[in-house]
Write a structure and sequence with these properties.
Radius of gyration: 18 Å
Largest sheet: none
Protein name: HD domain-containing protein
Order of helices and strands: HHHHHHHHHH
InterPro entries: HD/PDEase_dom, HD_domain
Pfam family, one: HD
Number of helices: 10
Helix content: 55-70%
Strand content: under 5%
Shape: globular
Amino acid sequence: MSENLIQNTVDFVKEKLEGAEAGHDWFHIERVWKLSKKIAATENGNLEVIELSALLHDIADPKFHDGDETLALKISNKFLESQHVSSEIIDQVLFIIKNISFKNRGEVPQNLPIELKIVQDADRLDAIGAIGIARTFNFGGFKNNLMYHPDIQPKLDMTKEEYKKSQGTTINHFYEKLLLLKDMMNTEKGKEIALERHQFMLQFLEEFDKEWNVN
């Protein structure tokens, strides 16, 4: 694996995501990249595919681009071709970018490659725990969503389109997605890390409820 390729990818992503919403900025990418390498150390996968996918997975998140799910694939493909990456590696990276998302989980093919499982675990781990709580409230503020409303119940089992258009409260997002992620981890290391982060979210929600109701 070329160190120049990884560094060039880092530089490219930093430039593309300058000024991005703070929950989906370069620092999110960096954390997912580091988590991917941590998990990959316990699995047998192609590290080049894993690192490139982790770095490029949110290069054009559809929710910030009018729901366009093709833009990230186009940008990533063009960049990787400019770096003379083999078509085989490019295809694997694009497959991961296309199938990593929580909202697309109903459309994902069976028998996923270990590289996707690793990067998906890393991405989902960054959505839970203390960082996950911070990112969730940051995005809720970005959308000007209510933090919580006792009369608005979480919507479970939303379709992909309902999920994309959801204007629910930030607290409901924990029940609609974040608390589900622990049981969706693919790797043993992912499951291990998720367990601790999941418990932290439960503690936070319990404290939030006590303070909201002034117990």
